[in-house]
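Appendix C: a fully annotated inverse folding record. The material below is reproduced so that readers can follow the format used throughout the book. The structure is listed first as C-alpha cells, followed by the designed sequence.
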C-alpha cells in the first residue's frame, strides 16, 4: 500500500492537496481579517465557514480529478521508459521509444534509444571478437600441433635415430669380432645393450607427450595414477606416488599440472638414470604443493650444455608461473634432482 501511494499519480494528487490546503488557509485568513476589521453585515461567522466548507469540498473533488488526469500522460510515458529498460535488461537492444513532446522525458527516451544502438553495436562487436577468437584458437591449435610434431621429429632424429644408427654400427662391429676378439665383442655388446636401453627410455619419454590430459575422462588424480602405473609396468623404476584423491582444480589448472608431471617424468626417463622416483601432490592450506624427486645422476644447474633438460625445466617453470605459482629446483651431480612447485588454489 505504501509503495502504491508513492507512485507518480498519487504524488500529483497530493501536490494538488497541498495547493488546496494553502489556498484554504489563505482565503480563510482573508475572510477572517475582513470580518474583524470591517465587520460587514453580509459577512458573519456562519457564512465564512459555509463558504470555506463549500470551497474545500469542491476543491477536493477538482484536485483529485485534475491530479489524476494530469498525471496519466506522465505515468504512461514513464511506463514506456520502464518497459524499454526492461527490454534492454533482457538483451533486446533493438527496441525503440518515440515521444512527440519536447520535454525532459523525450530527451531521456532519445538517450535510451542511442544507448540501445550502442549496446547492439557492442553485442555485434563481441560476437565478431568471439568468432575471431575461435578462429585464432583453431590456428593456434594447428600451430601448436605442427610445432609439437616438429619437436618430436627433432627429438627422434637427434636421439632415437642416432642411437639406432649407433646400435647398428656396434652390432655389425661385434659380429665381425666375435671369432677374432671375443673380449672386444663382449664389450661392444654391453655398449649395445646400454644404447638400446637409452633408446627405449627416449621412446617412452616421447610417448608421454602424446598422452591425453585425462585418461578415459578420469579426473586429474586418477589420470596421474594411471600414468604412473603404466610406467611401472614398462620400466624398472620404483615409483612412490602420493596424490590427494579429493583434489579439484579448474580444467586449465588440471591440464597444466598434468603436463608438468609428464614433463618431469620425461626428463627422468631421458636423463636421470634413476631407480627411484617420488611424486607428492597435496593441498596445503590455500595452495597446491607438488614435490617431484629422483635418485638419479643429477646435473649442474649452472651448466648450459644440458639443453634438452633445460628446455623441459623451462616448460615446467612457465606452466607453474601461468598458474601464479612458484617453481624451485635443487640438483647436484650424483645427488638426484628435487623439484618443488607451489600453486595458489
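Designed amino acids, in order:
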Amino acid at each position: 500500500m505504501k509503495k502504491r501511494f508513492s507512485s507518480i499519480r498519487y504524488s500529483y494528487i497530493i501536490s494538488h492537496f497541498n495547493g488546496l490546503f494553502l489556498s484554504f488557509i489563505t482565503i480563510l485568513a482573508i475572510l477572517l481579517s475582513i470580518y474583524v476589521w470591517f465587520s460587514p453585515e453580509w459577512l458573519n461567522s456562519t457564512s465564512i465557514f459555509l463558504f470555506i466548507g463549500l470551497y474545500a469540498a469542491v476543491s477536493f473533488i477538482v484536485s483529485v480529478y485534475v491530479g489524476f488526469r494530469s498525471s496519466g500522460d506522465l505515468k504512461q510515458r514513464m511506463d514506456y521508459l520502464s518497459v524499454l529498460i526492461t527490454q534492454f535488461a533482457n538483451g533486446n537492444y533493438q527496441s525503440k521509444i518515440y515521444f512527440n513532446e519536447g520535454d525532459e522525458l523525450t530527451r531521456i527516451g532519445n538517450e535510451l534509444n542511442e544507448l540501445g544502438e550502442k549496446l547492439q553495436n557492442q553485442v555485434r562487436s563481441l560476437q565478431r571478437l568471439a568468432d575471431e577468437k575461435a578462429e585464432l584458437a583453431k590456428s593456434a591449435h594447428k600451430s601448436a600441433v605442427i610445432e609439437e610434431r616438429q619437436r618430436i621429429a627433432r627429438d627422434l632424429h637427434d636421439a632415437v635415430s642416432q642411437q639406432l644408427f649407433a646400435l647398428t654400427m656396434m652390432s655389425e662391429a661385434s659380429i665381425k669380432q666375435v671369432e677374432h676378439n671375443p673380449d672386444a665383442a663382449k664389450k661392444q655388446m654391453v655398449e649395445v645393450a646400454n644404447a638400446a636401453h637409452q633408446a627405449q627410455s627416449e621412446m617412452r619419454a616421447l610417448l608421454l607427450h602424446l598422452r591425453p590430459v585425462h585418461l578415459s575422462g578420469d579426473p586429474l588424480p586418477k589420470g596421474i595414477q594411471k600414468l604412473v602405473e603404466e610406467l611401472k609396468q614398462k620400466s624398472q623404476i620404483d615409483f612412490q606416488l602420493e596424490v590427494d584423491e579429493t583434489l579439484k582444480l579448474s580444467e586449465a589448472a588440471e591440464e597444466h599440472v598434468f603436463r608438468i608431471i609428464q614433463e618431469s617424468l620425461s626428463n627422468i626417463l631421458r636423463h636421470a638414470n634413476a631407480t627411484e622416483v617420488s611424486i607428492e601432490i597435496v593441498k596445503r592450506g590455500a595452495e597446491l604443493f607438488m614435490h617431484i624427486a629422483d635418485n638419479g645422476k643429477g646435473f649442474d644447474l649452472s651448466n648450459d650444455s644440458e639443453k634438452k633438460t633445460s628446455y623441459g625445466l623451462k616448460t615446467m617453470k612457465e606452466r607453474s608461473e601461468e598458474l601464479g605459482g612458484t617453481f624451485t629446483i635443487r640438483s647436484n651431480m650424483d645427488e638426484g634432482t628435487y623439484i618443488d612447485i607451489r600453486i595458489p588454489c
